[in-house]
Design goal:
This protein is mainly α. The chain has one domain (2-102). 75% of the residues lie in helices and 0% in strands. It is built from 4 helices and no strands. Helix 1 runs antiparallel to helix 2 and helix 2 runs antiparallel to helix 3 (45-71). The chain is elongated.
Length: 113
């Protein structure tokens, strides 16, 4: 979900005078809910907890920035915050994608004797 979040927020950020705050709020809520629903499917417990915590903190931060952008849309500091947040989300998305490529998301097959 992190990759979709980055994709849509980044695309809207390219449109002048677009409602970046509204999109950041919507995507943070959708991404947070999706992350909570899907976090139980990861194989390794310690990785699951770490990824859940990192993702939820990131989406909560995005929600706060989105609310601040809706309140004061001309604040360039918050736009920069969204840009740096998207870089962090891209890092999370790349980490998850790399884990999928390596097969770390799969539970080990039972050993047959």
């Amino acid at each position: 979900m992190s990759l979709a979040n980055c994709f849509f927020v980044s695309l809207v950020a390219l449109i002048p005078a677009a409602g970046l705050g509204v999109v950041a709020i919507i995507m943070s809520v959708i991404s947070g809910v999706s992350t909570v629903r899907m976090h139980g499917r990861m194989a390794r417990q310690e990785l699951r907890i770490a990824m859940l915590a990192l993702s939820l903190v990131t989406y909560l931060f995005q929600l706060v920035i989105g609310i601040l952008l809706v309140i004061s849309p001309g604040d360039h500091t918050e736009v920069y915050s969204v840009a740096y947040l998207e870089i962090a989300l891209f890092a999370v998305a790349l980490g998850r994608a790399w884990g999928l490529v390596q097969g770390k998301h799969l539970r080990p097959a039972p050993v047959s004797r």
